[in-house]
Design brief:
alpha/beta, five-stranded parallel β-sheet, 33% helix
Length: 102
């Protein structure tokens, strides 16, 4: 897992043809907006969240965010424990995001 600043996260994502953006916030938080093309898996769903992570393609690179960066950091650690080696946490999360939103 790597904690990346918004600038590094965005730059790396832009150059990555094997990228998946993963939003681990709640449905209510997602209604406030998302980073375009992200997939939502709510980390608060516990076992269901872990089961969904197990279905992910381990060969992809995952760019993970939440509201502030804490839950996405936890999600990256869980992903690493499941054999997903390329998980990148957005420091500061969505509340500090200055890029495009949908």
């Amino acid at each position: 897992m790597a904690d990346l600043s918004q600038q590094d996260w965005e730059e790396q994502l832009e150059k990555d043809s094997n990228a998946v953006i993963l939003d681990v916030r709640t449905e209510e938080e997602v209604e406030e907006g998302i980073i375009p093309n992200s997939i939502n898996l709510d980390i608060y769903k516990g076992t269901e969240f872990v089961e969904e992570l197990k279905k992910l393609d381990k060969s992809k690179n995952y760019y993970v965010y939440c509201r502030s960066g804490n839950r996405s950091g936890q999600a990256c650690e869980i992903m690493n424990s499941l054999g997903i080696d390329n998980a990148f946490n957005l420091q500061g999360g969505f509340m500090n995001w200055e890029g495009e939103t949908a």
